[in-house]
Design goal:
It contains 16 helices and no strands. With 402 residues, it is mainly alpha-helical.
Length: 402
């Protein structure tokens, strides 16, 4: 039986554009704090600027679906990319923390506009029978950007200064915007939604656009589970470097190399398995991998044990992130995928936003072991909620379908 193609022209183009967008965003992750410190900003203010950025992104995602319902995904995506391009260029002119904070708030709006739409368009293009595998491939570009983006940015900053670095980061988003404008078509599903919208009665139109595009109650369960995943991710993404420094552990850079390699490889395998066997085969082992990460870090006394934790971290994130996306996007009808995608990214960000300070308080007041135990509790809660309430129940005859 012939399989439906994943790497169509449309999917390849949107994946390339998303990779370029992500590259520019990850170039700013290590450099914006350094830029702020260079302006004489205290470390506490650096955290405030980061909070402003993510908060504006979260708030934007709650409301962007109303705009998508009127303007279409492609048009809104292009606007978001233009915002990002403009803001990245304007950083080179910023001379105070207030200006940088304002620019980060506006860029957060651009991120909130673009991140969810990219995934939604990719899912619209993918064949249903290979969606898990396709979303896994789609995210590989982000992993590449996550790996090389900070290194490229620091190389440019050290050799040529902040201004060229900001301009080059902006160019990546500009090229992404041009790619979308000329090579990405408006998804068929979105055009059907527009036609459906035109048939609505005038008296109902304003009412439905205001509410049905903000959220959907069917997303509550999956959003809670994604939120718990976000809390788990807040541990090693925010505190592994500080933990290694306190324990005088070596080879920290290898932690991220091993984590990225494991994440990259597992996506090739688990997307296909989830398409054939169902999401349980990815979401349950992924939860146990996150629990293994917390347990391993709790007992870490040597660099070798820490690097084993990196392996579990990559496995967990590689299994959970794409397959949680596929689940949450499949919870609603195709016309509401932008709502579902926004819910996924907001749930991850809110989990990270709550988890990061919570884990920081645990580490500061009770030590890193208590922080890892708290993270383990979040992983256990994820498994309990998913297995008891969210677990997929498939007919036995469909287990090996596709």
């Amino acid at each position: 039986m012939n399989k439906e193609k994943i790497w169509t022209k449309g999917f390849t183009t949107i994946t390339a554009s998303y990779t370029l967008f992500s590259l520019g965003m990850y170039m700013l992750i290590p450099t914006i704090p350094l830029f702020l410190v260079g302006l004489g900003v205290a470390e506490s203010q650096v955290g405030v600027v980061a909070t402003a950025f993510y908060s504006s992104s979260i708030l934007t995602r709650f409301f962007i679906n109303m705009v998508i319902a009127k303007a279409g995904k492609k048009r809104v995506l292009v606007v978001g990319l233009i915002i990002n391009t403009t803001i990245m260029a304007l950083y080179s002119l910023a001379g105070s923390v207030g200006v940088v904070a304002l620019l980060r708030v506006v860029q957060g709006m651009g991120l909130g506009t673009t991140s969810a739409i990219f995934t939604t368009i990719a899912v619209d293009i993918l064949p249903d029978s290979r969606r898990g595998q396709g979303v896994g491939y789609f995210g590989l570009g982000v992993i590449v950007a996550m790996t090389i983006g900070p290194a490229i940015a620091l190389f440019i900053k050290d050799g040529f200064g902040f201004v060229p670095m900001f301009l080059i980061a902006g160019c990546t988003n500009m090229i992404a915007a041009v790619t979308v404008i000329f090579f990405v078509e408006e998804p068929r599903i979105n055009m059907e939604q527009q036609a459906e919208k035109q048939q609505e009665k005038p008296g109902e139109k304003a009412k439905t656009i205001q509410w049905r595009n903000l959220y959907d109650r069917r997303l509550i369960l999956s959003s809670v589970i994604v939120f718990l995943f976000g809390i788990c991710r807040a541990v090693d993404t925010n505190y592994i470097a500080l933990f290694a420094m306190e324990r005088k552990l070596e080879y920290l850079s290898w932690y991220f190399v091993i984590q990225t390699a494991a994440m990259f490889c597992i996506r090739f395998i688990m997307g296909r398995v989830a398409d054939r066997k169902g999401r349980n085969w990815a979401l349950i082992p992924g939860g146990f991998a996150m629990l293994a990460l917390m347990i391993t870090l709790n007992f870490t006394t040597t660099s070798a044990v820490m690097l084993l934790g990196a392996f579990f971290s990559g496995l967990g994130a590689g299994m959970l992130a794409p397959n949680l996306q596929v689940w949450i996007l499949g919870t609603v009808e195709p016309s509401k995928r932008s709502v579902a995608s926004s819910s996924y990214y907001n749930s991850v960000d809110i989990g990270s936003a709550i988890g990061a300070p919570l884990m920081g308080l645990m580490a500061e007041n009770f030590g890193y072991n208590s922080m890892f135990r708290t993270g383990a509790c979040a992983a256990v809660l994820y498994l309990v909620v998913y297995i008891t309430v969210g677990r997929e129940k498939r007919p036995k005859g469909n287990q090996d379908a596709a």
